[in-house]
Specification:
elongated; Transcription Regulation, Sacy, Chain A; PTS-regulatory domain, PRD
Length: 294
Amino acid sequence: MTMKVDRVFNNNIIRVMDGGTETILTGLGLGFRMRPGDVVDESKVEKRFVLEPEAGGSIVGALVADLAYEVLQLADALATTAHERLGVELTPRVHFALADHLSAALERSRAGQRIENPLLWEVRSAYPTEFAVALEMLDQVSAHAHVTLPLDEAGYLTMHLVNATLTGNMEATLRASETVREIIAIVARRVGIAAAPQSNDFLRFVTHVKYFVQRLEDAAPLSGAHAEVYEMLRASDEEVSAAAMEVAEYATDRYGGEVTSEELLYLMLHIHRVRRARPAAPGSGKPISTIDNG
């Protein structure tokens, strides 16, 4: 079926209505001298981005209008890295938001300007896996664009990756990120965190907190049949239990709804693993037992 141009954003980006679906097409020179109603030269199409009705076509349009071809290519390369390292597919909105950010970051760098990221180290602690991928992306930018972006940009790239893996909506992602950081801060204040940031215990803890927050966003808490284990752990380790309860109170204030005993159980297990000390279970002389929650 022949596709016709619906809107030309620039020489390399156009919009078509493909079977009634809004679709963004990119390619070198794809939009050059094209007007609405012209037939698309499909041999020039390099990428297709099908926009869902809720994706916000006007927002995507505002993002893509001024993107240079080199930025499109770079964003494609970073999207591939995100897929290979994290197993995520960037939605069109996230993809073009990333490209728009890259465009601005490259312009700032070439002009000798720098924007400090005040949350850099908090983001690094809360999202170590995504941050490691973001560092790899900085190397890609340097290799492709011959521009060295500051470390602060790794924090911003991390948030785009979190946006892709958690919610797909930057406002919700920022709220989720703030919630994750605050939960880690509560645990650190209550019991201390001895586990190193790159240790398996800490990475599992952060991963669990991220998915806990995602379940809060979705109003889909864990439920299960571990009530006896929960009561046993709650009674045997008051410090860990108090930390988990404070996390639950914070989560309820922020999102509403109930934090179930199953959620509290897994929070306690992970808090126990990263705590500065691991007391023995009463009368056993051995560490408190845990159950594997994946």
